[in-house]
Structure formats: C-alpha cells, structure tokens
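Contributing new records

If you add data, match the layout below exactly. Sequence lines come first and carry their own label; structure lines follow with theirs. Keep one chain per record. Anything else will be rejected by the validation script.
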Amino acid sequence: MVKVNIRKAAMIGCGFVGSSAAFALMQSGIFSEMVMIDADRARAEGEAMDISHGLPFARPIKLYAGDYDDIVDAGVIIITAGANQKPEETRLDLIHKNVEIFKSIIPEIAKRNCEGILLVVSNPVDILTYTALKLSGFPEHRVIGSGTVLDTARLKYLIGEHLRVDNRSVHAFIIGEHGDSELAAWSNANVSGVKLSDFCEMRGHFSHEASENRIYEEVKNSAYEIIERKRATYYGIAMAVKRICECIIRDEKSILPISSMMRGMYGMEDIVISMPAIVGKDGVEDVIPISLDEEEQAQLKKSAGVLRKMNEMIQKEHGIPGD
C-alpha cells in the first residue's frame, strides 16, 4: 500500500471551478504537490502551465498535468468534474449526466486503493457525494462534499453587511441540501455569542423576520444571480475548497457544514446532506447536533426527503447501490 502524502492534492476536473480552486490552493501554500486531471488532457496541461508560470511570486509547489495513476498517494482528491446546467435543462437532467460521469471517474479512483480524503465539489453535490461514497467503497468519514460551506459564507457575509460588522464574527449556518430546499438555522445564529435578534436591535434593526427572509432569499439565489451576470460561479467555491483543505491538511478540527453521510441525526439515515461537522486529517470526525426549533426541524426533514427521493432515483435508474 502506497503511503499517503498529506501535502499532495489531486484535482479531477479543470474547468472554471477546478482551475480556480487549483489557483487558490497554490496561493495558500498548504500543498507541496498538485496533479491536475481532465478528460481533455490539453486543458489540464494548459491550466497547470498557466498557474506554474506565477510560482516565482508564490511558494514552491510541484504542479503538473497527469492521469489517475498520479493520484495514488494524494492526501486529498478533489472532484470538480461534471457538466454544468444549461438554461433549457432541468436539475434532473443534470443529475443524470453527472451521475454517469461519476460512474466513469470513481471506479478509476477506487481500483487504485487510494487512502486520501475524497472531496466532491461537483453539483448536485449531495447526490454526487452519495454516489462517490457508494461507488468507491471508501469509509464514510473519508468521502465528503463541499456542501453548504459556500452558502454559509454567503449568509455570514450578508449578515455582516446588514449589521455593519465583521462577517468573521458572525456564527450562523445554512444546512440541508445544497439547493433550493436548504435552510438557514436562524434559531442558533449569533454574533460573537450575542443572540442575532439582540445584536440586530443593538444596531437599530427590529424587523427580524423580514430581514431574515430577505437575507435567506439572497443566499439561496446568489448562484443564479451570478450565473445570470457572468455565466458561472467559481471564485467563491474555490475559496471554500481551500478552506476545507486547510482543515484537513492542518488537522484543524474546525466545524464546517460539509456534505456527509447521516446515521440517525434528526431521523436522517443513508443520505448525504450538509450539517456542521468537525473536519480534520481523517475527514469527518463527528457531525454536530446543533439545536433547531420545530420549524427548522420540519424544514430539514423536508430537505432530507428531497434528497432521499433523488437517491432512490439514481439507485433505480443508474444502478447506484444503497444500504
């Protein structure tokens, strides 16, 4: 068995998201080696060359285009490969296409007996993380998705703007499906330990429900708004990928709302969904049972139901194994 090089990353997929994430990771300095893999080998070579030419301004890293044989010792294998949703396509169309793409990618990873963490970024991330987990046979703690890490960052940013306060002092989560059924866990949101509604009133805001609804809708629609203006989103998710990788490589045990397998929390079983989790060198260490009020629990149950139906569909139509 090949020893894992914790400071080596493999980037599978070199489109906008993959190349932006590779650039962010290069600048972070957390990896000393990164291989870039794409179905279009020339694209991977071009991206690797382009990023490498800036290395005299950054920290040393061995960055190159390669193939699946190069991922064997990677500490983190990041998958951004997949089709983008076209304007005339439904979300269901996208699921069908990307599950089929994963059916070609994941077996290539699995047969090399990789011991690193599998980080899925491709959308729909919850379904594809579930697909990756079932097809790879990896332990559940080693297969995670980017989940609602970016959605949560958007929430913190918008709350910070609303309150005119540093968004790093905002503590709040978007949980559930990374998609239209996601929810903001307002009941435990706070600013440096002060209940969010109390902090809002300190800052002269009293229409709490209206403000929460507006901010939530902005978070949920952010990707659509960006895509309408520039056709794709990639910088925000690239920074989210960097943050997740930092937690793994540094064994930070930070709490992030990543996609991971649920085993009984709030009645959720055999679905991959975003809940706050402790993230470190082994992937998911524990999922955190944050307190939710009755309405939030109902919304989470509804979100889980959406994902469960999708899981049943891919099991039936694509032969993805279940429990």
